[in-house]
Structures are given as C-alpha cells and as structure tokens.
Amino acid sequence: MKALIFDLDDTLYNQEEPFKQAIQAHLPVQDEQMEALYIAFRLHADEVFEAATTGAMTLEASHIYRMKQALADFGYDLSDELALTIQKDYQENQGRLLLSPEFPTIFDYCHENGIHLGIITNGPHLHQLRKLQSLEMANWISEDLTLISGQVGIAKPRKAIFDLMAEKLQVLPEEICYVGDSFENDVVGAKGAGWKVIWLNHRKRKTPNSPYRADAVVEKREDLLAAIQVLG
C-alpha cells in the first residue's frame, strides 16, 4: 500500500452527534431512536444528492426533502420552515466537529511508513471545507490531496474522482486503499476504480446485493489500524 485515502462524513468524525443536537433542540426524539433516524436521513439524502448536484433540485429543496422524509419515517410531520431551521442548526454544529480519536495514531503510522494520505468527499465545496478546517485536517493531509466533489465537479461513486486522486498521487490503483462508511459511494466507487477498500460499517448496515466486496470490513474505528496494517 502506497496511499490511504479517507472519506470525510461519518468516517473521520461521528456525524450523528451534530445531527442529534440539532434534532433534539426542536423535537422530543429519544436517544434510542437517534441512530435509526440518522441512517434514514442519510438514505433520503442519497436519494436527492444527484439532483442537487446537477441543479435539477435546489440545495435548499434537497435539505428540506431529506429532513422531512427522515422524520416522517418516525411519525413527525414537519413544515418546510422547521426542516430548514433544524438543517441550519445541524450545519452550525458541524462547525464544531471533533476528529475521532483513533485517527491521529493512524495518520502517524502512515507517515512513519511512507504511506500518502488523502481525502475524497462528496458535498458542496465551502461546506465540506469548513468541516475540514474544524477538524484541523491540514495538520495531516495536504490541500492538494483533498478532493471535494463540489469543487472538482465529480462525485463518488463515479470512477473519475478516484482516477483523479490516483493521477495526483502518481501511484497505481492497486497500491491505493480507501476507507469509508458508505457501501454505495465508497466500496462501489473505489473497487470500481481498482482500489482496495476498508468498509467502516460502524452503523452495521446489511451488505447490499453487489458484485463488489470490501477487502476488509470493520465495525469499530478502534479496529481500523489493524485492518490497515494487514492490507499494507
């Protein structure tokens, strides 16, 4: 392994926490419901991501849709106004993110072993950039090896965004490993580009029916370093 590339959202940090804070500031959703609600939110976000990216749907409309649909699944009927208010709080909470504590050790291991580090993330450029700044990712990963779909005009799982990273790294696809939490975007996208993949399945999702399989599956961030060392 010559390069290890990471997804951002819900991989390098726990995306459920800022979501939970935003929801519970406005609705009486219990803690035990929160993970299932968050998974529903992510699924509904995926439904409209392509439309929001291409301009077929406005970003605001996609935010309303994913919030209202997720909460409707749990019996909450929201107005567009409340959905946007919760979304605003969610985005503000994302400006105070904390890197999951396992990653500094992983990054140090990679630096000590000459493994390049990078990030590929889907989302609007400035929005994702603010998250990266909040996490202080520049301490470990250069801006040149950070690809944001909204900046480069290509989104996961399209092979082209993985190929762009491989071109920047100047290494062969089979020498790159990707770490991400989304099977559809991360496992399918990276394997389609000829990379190795570690699926961080910490939400314990069922493996979809797909011709692609991750090279390793871990359910806890604490187990990532061991999986990286095996693949490396």
UniProtKB/TrEMBL annotation:
Entry's Gene Ontology molecular function annotations: 5'-nucleotidase activity; metal ion binding
Give, as one word, the top-level EC class: hydrolase
Provide the alphabetized UniProt keywords.
Hydrolase, Magnesium, Metal-binding
- Which EC number(s) are documented for this chain? 3.1.3.5
Write down the required cofactor(s).
Answer: Mg(2+)
Superkingdom of this protein's organism: Bacteria
- The signal peptide stretch is none
Which Gene3D superfamilies does the record match to this protein? HAD superfamily/HAD-like, Haloacid dehalogenase hydrolase-like domain
| Record field: transmembrane | none
Q: Name one GO biological process term.
A: small molecule metabolic process
- Record PANTHER family: GLYCERALDEHYDE 3-PHOSPHATE PHOSPHATASE, N-ACYLNEURAMINATE-9-PHOSPHATASE
Name this polypeptide is given: HAD family hydrolase
**UniProt organism field:** Streptococcus acidominimus
Q: What lineage does the source organism belong to?
A: Bacteria, Bacillati, Bacillota, Bacilli, Lactobacillales
